[in-house]
Every structure is written in C-alpha cells, then in structure tokens.
Amino acid sequence: MLTKSDNLVWHDSSVKKEDRHRLNGHRSGVIWFTGLSGSGKSTLANAVDRELYKHNIRSYVLDGDNIRHGLNRNLGFSPEDRQENIRRIGEVSKLFVDAGLFVLTAFISPYRNDREMVRRLLNNDEFIEVYVKCSIDECERRDPKGLYEKARKGEIKEFTGISAPYEEPINPEIIIETDKQSLEESVAQVMEYLKGLYDLKMLDK
C-alpha cells in the first residue's frame, strides 16, 4: 500500500534563494529566540523586527501564541506535541529563509534536541539561537499572562519551569539577560551580531 509521501515530488523554484538575496540586498536567516515564559522573547523579537524594518531589511515575527491560534491549534503541551510544534515552525521558518527574509521566532522551545533539529534544516550561518535568559523569579514576578500563578495552583499542567523542564542552550550564538539589560541594549546586541555575520551594510543607510 502506497503512503502519501510515495507520490510526492519536490519541485525546485525557478527563482533561487540567492536571487532573492540580490533583489532584497541582504541575506536571510532564522533568529530563534528561546527562553522561559515571561523572559521577554516576544518583546525582544518584535523590537528587533522593528529595527530591521527601519533599515529596509525584510523580516517577519513568528510568535508562539499566534502560531497556536492557527497553524498549530491542534497541538497541546505534551513533550510529543511540543516537538511537533517546533518541527512545524522549523519547516515554516525554512520557507521564509528560502523566500529571502529574516524570520524571528519567539517560542519557549524547551528541548535542545528540538532546537537542534531546526538548526539542521538550515545552512550553517542561517540559524542564530538567541537565549533570552531571565531568572525564574523575575519571570514569575512579571507573569504577564498570569500563567505562573495558575501553574503553581495546578491549573496548568506541563508548564515549563514549574512542572516541565527547560533545557538551557549550551552554546547559543547570543545570550541576552533581560533581567539585567534594557530592551535597547538587548536590541543593539542582536543587531551588532547580525551586522558582523551578514555584513548588513544597509544598516548604515
């Protein structure tokens, strides 16, 4: 019996990724923000996105909550569903990179193996892991969605940092300590790394 995959054929695009790079005037890649809930991933990703926009660099933010409203609405928070959540985001991110854009992803993505799985989908310099580091105490103090309080009461199961693990990155490209750095300092740190890696000369326009 044939499976669906037996009848699928990959079709190469007539417009290559390198063509889109030349059109845009810059390279493309994934800026993968990972960290605990409340660490500031979405805030930082959107601030970097705004800075890239100001300098004529095409980018887009994929936010964890937003994706679960649509593409991944059928997934829960078990280890298996978390893995599938990140796998899908990795594949979508690769499409953005092929389209010539920077994609900024803001997901807890608690497991190292899942993050490495996404890294392997891309070329060596196309995946930038940004560890948005923040103490659990500060994340709980912020608790913008009231999730930690619910998790402490047992109302949320499999909550990262409380009843489910978070595996810190071992060797991320960038570490941002949002309980010690201002948002402006954090954005500047990311932008300096991008300028060095991708030679984004248009940042000086």
Protein topology:
Layout: H1 17-24, E1 29-34, H2 41-54, E2 59-63, H3 64-69, H4 79-98, E3 102-106, H5 112-121, E4 127-133, H6 136-142, H7 147-152, E5 174-177, H8 183-198
Parallel strand pairs: 1-3, 1-4, 2-3, 4-5
Helix pairs in contact: 2-8, 4-5
Outline the structure in words.
It is built from eight helices and five strands, in the order H-E-H-E-H-H-E-H-E-H-H-E-H. The protein has one domain (24-196): Rossmann fold (3-Layer(aba) Sandwich), CATH 3.40.50.300. Helices cover 42% and strands 13% of the residues. The protein has helices at residues 17-24, 41-54, 64-69, 79-98, 112-121, 136-142, 147-152, 183-198, and strands at residues 29-34, 59-63, 102-106, 127-133, 174-177. It is of the alpha/beta class and 205 residues long. The model has no long low-confidence stretch (mean pLDDT 89). The chain has a five-stranded parallel beta sheet with strand order 2-3-1-4-5, with helices on both faces. Helix 2 packs across helix 8 (183-198).
CATH class (first level) name? Alpha Beta
Q: Which ranges are low-confidence, i.e. pLDDT below 50, for 5 or more consecutive residues?
A: none
**Portion of residues in helices?**
40-55%
- The helix/strand class is alpha/beta
Question: How many beta-strand segments?
Answer: 5
Q: State the end-to-end distance.
A: 58 Å
Secondary-structure element pattern, one letter each: HEHEHHEHEHHEH
Main sheet properties? 5 strands, parallel
Mean pLDDT: 89
Globular, elongated, flat, extended or rod-shaped: what is the shape? globular
Question: What is the CATH architecture descriptor?
Answer: 3-Layer(aba) Sandwich
**Strand arrangement, largest sheet?**
2-3-1-4-5
